Amino acid sequence: MMTPMSAKTGFGDDSISSTDKRRSQSIKPTPTSVASSSSTPTASNGKSNKVAAVFLSQEQTHILKLAQEGSSVFYTGSAGTGKSVLLREIIKVLKKKYARTPDAIAITASTGIAACNIGGVTIHSFAGIGLGIESAEDLATKVRKNKKASTRWLRTKVLIIDEVSMVDGDLFDKLAKIGRILRKAKEPFGGIQVTFLN
Fold first, then answer.
1. HSE (CB half, 13 Å, CA atoms) of 82?
2. For tag attachment on the chain, is the N or C end more exposed, with fewer CB atoms within 10 Å?
3. Where is this region: Disordered (predicted)?
4. Which alpha helices (H) appear in 39-198, and where do they start and end?
5. Tally of CA atoms within 13 A in the half-sphere of 9 that contains its CB
């Protein structure tokens, strides 16, 4: 069973609404409650390849809806509970939502292997911070000097971090502060919608 958490204003504060708390407590998984439509790619010989439909539980559907509506979410679960399946669906839905601005979605992970598995980059690479050992203020200055990294921070609307438990707590706090500094916003990560999974 997955454990969802969401916050409209970001992480680091206790702003989860009582409605969301009640909703997440009352959700019981149902194995085939929603089918997500999958595209049918065409092979080079002109024939279509069948892609199996993805079935999401009620709990997964709730998390997907929160992400689609712009809420920041964190979800976790044991091995085999469908975290990666849900992540692929979240990415697919958000890519469709931001089809005109594909750089609005930053898909990252704590390690290179995890990043490759989801078609993303490491969080360090996205952030443009190298090893990230400096203070948040120094890192923000470093990022400002890197036009590509600075532009990524400003254009990103959704930041996805897979294997977030592998991100050091100090680094996590620095990233949240870098976002605030670069985007000139009070919210964690500068108001970027975040999706974290573990």
1. 21
2. N
3. 1-46
4. 58-68, 83-97, 112-117, 123-127, 136-145, 147-155, 169-183
5. 9
Amino acid at 16: I
* CA triple 82-161-58, angle to 5 deg: 30
pTM, to two decimals: 0.77
Distance CA 64, CA 52 (A): 19
- 12 membership: H or E segment, kind and range: none
For the chain, counts of helices (H) and of strands (E): 8, 8
Can you give the pLDDT of all 198 residues of the chain as single tens digits?
A: 666 655 443 444 433 333 344 344 434 444 434 444 444 444 555 555 666 788 999 999 999 999 999 999 999 999 999 999 999 999 999 999 999 998 999 999 999 999 999 999 999 999 999 999 999 999 999 999 999 999 999 999 999 999 999 999 999 999 999 999 999 999 999 999 999 999
